[in-house]
Amino acid sequence: MRKRMLQSLLVMVVIALPFIGHGVYLLMTTWPNSITLATGPVDGRHRMIMEALAEEIRDELGLTVYLKDSAGSLANLRMLEAGEVDFVLYQSGARRMIGDQPRVAEENQIRFVSNLYYEVAHWVVNRDSEIRDVADLKGKTIAVGQEGSGDTAMSLVLAEHFGLSPEDYEAEYLKYAQVRARFLDDSLDAALITVGLQADIFRKLCEEGKIEFREFDNVDALVRNHISLTPYTIPRGVYRTQDRISPETVIKTVALRSQLLCRSELRDSLVERVTSIALSEDFMKRMQLGELFSQGTEFARAKPEFAVHPGAAHYFDPTLKPILNSDFVEAMEGMRSFIVSLLIAGYIGWRWWVRRKTRQSEHRLDRYIRRLLAIERKQVLLGEGRITIEDDCRELQNLLDEVTNLRQDCLKDFTAHELNEDRSVDCFLEMCHALSDKINAKLTRSTLEGRFRELRELLLEQKTGSEESPPAGESV
Length: 476
Prior knowledge:
about 15% strand; alpha/beta; two-stranded parallel sheet; 19 helices; rod-shaped; D-Maltodextrin-Binding Protein, domain 2
């Protein structure tokens, strides 16, 4: 019975496994219905690119895409660590520039997707000011970016490179719109802004004619001290307007890579598709991602600050892509121990239920045991009311035959496997042997008592006969 139930359970599990596997595969590989992208500050290049990327994802993947405003790179990184957004743009090295050391658990939430373009450090001054070099910045009001932005982190590095301490200038944490307004009313002397070329903030500032560009000295030394920075040159006239050319000369500066990052939990297939959209030729041309367009995957994969997401790695190197979906493999590996534990728990529960049911129901041995106990009670009560020992011996012999027949019936009712596995059968047979020994002992004792009684009666008869016979020579 148990064997049949176990076989039935195994058959049901085997039949259900394909359906369970298919359900797990869909659960582990299905994309979310929506994703969230951090945009960055208004008038910045981050916002332009992320809004365009969101539009492409909606059109090509059919997902609902939400955009979440942020102050910039550092704020993006914190939101990504907290799981509030799925994709962000981040200025490489910004966290190290402010001396922030992330916890391992937080850093493990972040994965690198691709470099998209260079974020260029711009040092601009009010055209009406008399700032010509670094020494003129002392005592001036300088916009250092919005708090939580990559501008702020880069401004600290540049101020240190200029030899300026926090007491040497008045730092203003301003949004891009506020920077424009402060330049227009001449309440701002300079600004340190790290943003991609063609950003709206500089197009508007150049059209208004209130700023001039300044170049950095000792660029090589700055790059040597900060490995995330790269020497960069702003071409003359890149911000050309109808009235003027800006900048008027080539500007030597530094740049860092703007990296597309994502959450580590995102499906590999989803990240792979988003990577293909961001690195498509049409998207690069539309967003004017010059470095990415000219250098290709060499620029896209250069100097990742975080571990590369497997989905992005599959896009860059298709030969690394496994035959099975890695999300499914990872999920099944995580589910393997759970499924095995579940099967073991189910088997143990089934065994417990069978044993409990068996205990509650009558065992096949119960009727044999009841018969054996009845025989034992008979042999205990034997002798009460009996007249002769011969009757006792005859009754004991009958009881011994009943025990033998009962033992044979039991052995016929149980198979060899059951005899090996069921300890209760052994106990019953031992009880039979013990009762047989007891009856044999009682039978032997009764037989001996009968023999002694017969012998005593014979001796008494002989003694009585000798006393009654006359002596020799005496007449009767």
